[in-house]
Amino acid sequence: MTDGNGGKRHSLGRAGFFALGCLMVALGFIGAFLPLMPTTIFLILAAWCFGKSSPRLETWLLDHPRFGPSLRAWRAEGAIPRRAKYMAAGGITFGYVVFWIAARPGLVLALVVGVIMGAIALWIWTRPEPAGR
Asked: 110 or 35: which carries more pLDDT confidence?
């Protein structure tokens, strides 16, 4: 489909996905070192963005020795390794405790945030584990 701009829209789209992929990688690597910040979800998003903009960087992420197996398992099976589930549950629990202490929320807010975080944890735990593990 042409846009009347000689393919500029396509190039801008690729550049946008590339920039977003780079941002997601940065956030993912920050999350690898900060306890309240997730890692894998940002890298899943980065792989998706690079799949639309940079096959070389997509391959680099999928072949990464530390993060690649989880990314490939998610892509192939929608699977989350058990260790990642434990880490996610721990991070969610720690995040809720920090929220509770720092924000001192009222009962309604505490319940709303708790239900949302609990639903996320439940969703994570209901994902299959990678085959062969």
From this structure: 110
Q: Are 21 and 43 in contact (CB under 8 A)?
A: no
Q: Which of 128, 124, 100 is nearest to 41 (CA)?
A: 124
pTM above 0.85, yes or no: no
Q: Quick one: which of 74, 46, 79 has its CA closest to 60?
A: 46
Cβ–Cβ < 8 Å for 39, 81 = no
Distance CA 116, CA 79 (A): 21
How many CA atoms does the CB half-sphere of 41 hold within 13 Å?
8
Q: What is the pLDDT of residue 3?
A: 52
Other Cβ atoms within 10 Å of 92 Cβ, number: 17
- Comparing 35 with 101, the larger pLDDT belongs to 101
**Residue of 19, 26, 120, 29 whose CA lies nearest to 67:** 29
Average pLDDT (17-38) is: 89
**φ/ψ of residue 38, rounded to 5:** -75, 160
How is residue 61 written in tokens?
A: 């992420």
Residue 75 pLDDT more than 70?
yes
